[in-house]
Structures are given as C-alpha cells and as structure tokens.
Amino acid sequence: MIEKLMNIDRRIVFILVGLAVIIPSLLSVSFPITVSQPTRSTYDYIESLPTGSTLMIGFNYGPSSLAELHPMAEAVIHHCFQQKVRVIGMTLLPDGATLGDDMLRKVADETGAIYGEDYVYLGFRPGATQVLLGMGTAIDSVFEADYAKTPLAEIPMMADITNYEQIDLVLDLASGSSTEWWIVYTNTRYNQQIAAGVTGVIVSQMYPYLQTKQLIGLMPGLLGAAEYEKLIGRPAKGTEGMSIQSFAHLLVVGLVILGNIAFFIQRRQAE
Amino acid sequence: MRRQVPLILCFAFGIVMALTEFSPHRFSQWLNKEVIDWTLVIGPFALVLAIATLIQTHWTRIRRRSEYWQYSFLVFIGMIVMVVIGIPLGQRHPVFVWLFRYVQVPMDATMFSLLAFFIASAAYRAFRARTLEATLLLAAALIVMIGNAPVGDLIWNTIIPFGDNLPSAARQWILDNPNLSARRGIILGISLGVISQSIRIILGIERSYLGGVEGD
Questions:
Q1: Which residues, given as ranges, of chain B have pLDDT below 50?
Q2: Do A123 and A16 share a structural domain?
Q3: CB B128 to CB A263 under 8 A?
Q4: For residue B23, which residues of chain A lie inside 8 Å, CB to CB?
Q5: What is the ipTM of this complex?
Q6: How far is CA B67 from the centre of its chain?
Q7: b/e per residue B152-169 (b: at least 16 CB within 10 A)
Q8: In a domain, B80, yes or no
Q9: What is the β-pairing status of strands A169-174 and A119-124?
Q10: Spatial distance between the Cα atoms of A145 and A153, rounded to a whole number of angstroms
Q11: Interface of A with B in 234-263 (CB under 8 A)
C-alpha cells in the first residue's frame, strides 16, 4: 500500500491538477482576500498622485505570463484612468508589444479614456538597457513615433513629457529581469520612482529592492492582481483566479504532506 | 590587428563610459548621451545576428536530417508568415493581431501551463523531509504556498480562534526576512563578480568574448 502510494502514477497527479483547476472555475467560488503591504504601497502611491500626473507602464511579459500579469495591468490602468493619471505604455520585449496595445485599448474602451490625451502607447524598441538610458535624456530619441507610427511631436499628451523628469512613477510588469534593469538604469541614475508587478516565481527576488525603497511597491503574481482589484473595488480576472490558485495550492500542499507521510512510514518499516 | 582593435575599443569605451558616470560636467554628460545614442543604433544588429543564427541552426538540422528535423520547417513557416504580414501591413493589422491572439498566445500559454502539472508531480515525488535543511525548506515552501492563496487565511480563521490571517502574515515574514537576507547575499556576490569580470574585460585580461582560445 505504502509502496503504491510512493510510486503513484503521475497521470493521476495530472488528473488531480486538472480537476483542481476545472472545478473551481466552474463553481465560481470566492475567498476573502487579505491585501499585502507591498501591493497597498503601490495603490497608495498611485492614489496620492495629483490629476494630470504620468505613469509609465512597461508591459515586459509575453503570452506565457499573460494570465498573471494582464489582470494586474488591467486593474492599475483602470485605477489610473479613474484618478485622471495619464498612462504611457511601452515594452522591452517584442512579445509584449501587441499585449500592451490590446490591454490599453480595452481599458480605454471601458472607461472612455482618449488616446493621445489620457494615454499613449509607444510599443517596442530593441536594446533594453539602451532604451532605458536613452529615455532618461529624451523619450523621443528612442521612440520617435508611437506604436501606430504617429510622431510623438504630434501627440498632445507628449507635448509636456520629455524624459523621466515628467514621469511620476514607472510600473514594470515583468516576467523576467526587466525590473532589475529599471532599478539599475533609471532609479539609480535618474532617481525615477519604480513599482513592480511580477510573476509568482520571481517575487522573492524583488524583496531586497523593496526594503531599500528602490521599489516603492510590489504586486506578487496573480495574488497581487486580486489584491489590487480589491483595493480599487473592481473584482475581475485576478479575483476569479484566486479560487483556482487556492485549490491548486491546497492540492500541491496535500500531495507533499501525503508523500512525506508515506516516506516516513516506509523509512520506519525499513528500520 | 584583428584582436588589438577590439581590445583597444573595449578599453577606451569601458574607461570613458565608467568615468562619465561619475562626472556631472556638461561635456561628460554629452559624451555619455552620444554613446548611448550610438548603442541604440547598434542594438538592433543583435536581432539580425539572432535571426541569422536561428536560420543557420535550423537549416543545418534540415540538411543533416537531425532528429525531429521536420519541425524546423515549422520554425521557418512561422517566421516567414509573421514577417511577410508584419512588415508591410504593420503590427496592428487584423491578420497579424489574429495570428498573435489565436496562434501564438494559446501556444505560449499552453507550454507554460504544463509546468503546473509537472511541478505538482515533481513536488509529490521529490519534496521529502530527509534532512534538517530539507525540512526547513519544505516548511517554508508550504507556508508560502498556503499564505499565497486566500484559502489559507480562510481555513486558519475558521478553525483556529486566534492569530487572524496568520498564513499570509507568516508568508510575508518569510519573504521579508530570511528570503530578503539570502537574496541580498546573492545580489552582493553577483555584483562583485560582475565588477571583477568587467574590470578583466576592460583591461583585456578576459578575452573570450573575442572568440577563439583565451590569451591568443
């Protein structure tokens, strides 16, 4: 029996994971969400920005991390448009270009934000570090035109935005190392305020920067999206995903405990 | 000469750019900006290099009939289709967007989603409290995992009459303290390594980036 438990067919584990994902999405169960301090700090910072401030969002993720980071982007952009904070979108990854454009247009359609007045999307440029450094002197030296090829000089919102000095906060939505690039090249050199929303697997790497205030806030994975949705009072994909994440985490914890019980029984029998 | 010119350029630019970081002088800042502008022009060449390498690798696989060589055709088809549509019509063209949304996004997301299945299976098989260190790691992982899902707080608050939201508070403590300390040590180690390696490259001691055998 213990031997069987120890060598359980992995297809059974796969089926259990599948069920842990499918069942809660069908039942639409919801759980109360506790907001963590790093997410609250991001929210508070944006909340404290005066009307007409500017937030730059880096859509530095591809489709593989879309499930975690898109809900975050949606919640923050909604918050910005509610607060009349202007948004500049850009990406350092080619895969992020269409994702950023889609997300900004979606939220703009929902909120009535106007392109060129409330938000601008710059798209992608290769050479991440050079792009970050270049925008420190002049954004139009890197992005001479926006994603739709309109010269920045013809976009009303960009008339009073030259470089990081006119940007109140950078929010990096990242599935890789881009947050560290922003910290090294823009916070250290240009004293730019930065917040980040990152995938669950890299959250732990960001904590040293949070303590040193090189990051003013941090949203951890899908949970961060759900927390932000709670703060703005607009439950969406992040909150929906929490029931699935809860069941999946419970399953993995249960499997690990079960595996260890079997392991200890087997070891005792062997002794 | 083939090696001396790159070494001289590397030394000159390395030293000058490092110095400009410490000097607020107008000329220094102008020079810094100018060189960054140059790198913005040079940067896209890396893409050309990457595409050339990709083509070379997959063409060789097809020519040699290596294992699964047929899939290399798919790489070429995908690349050609996206380039043929993307360059003349633009990235906002409905066909390009459709291909991205309904081909690339589902494929990419599916590949990543498979991880959940393998992680669950691997955790069941490999995550064992064999030693004290492994037990500590296991306990920390379980607390973070439970604290990372709202159901952890719900179960705790329902069953235990004290310590409201303890799982999420414990998770936050682990991230804020042991995790932060360990990460800081790693960052310091990496940074010192990067600095020493940079000095070696600037001074021409480390030459492997030129290709060939070190010290040629």
A1: 214-216
A2: no
A3: yes
A4: none
A5: 0.84
A6: 28
A7: bbbbbbeeeeeeebbbbb
A8: no
A9: unpaired
A10: 8
A11: 242, 245-253, 255-260, 263
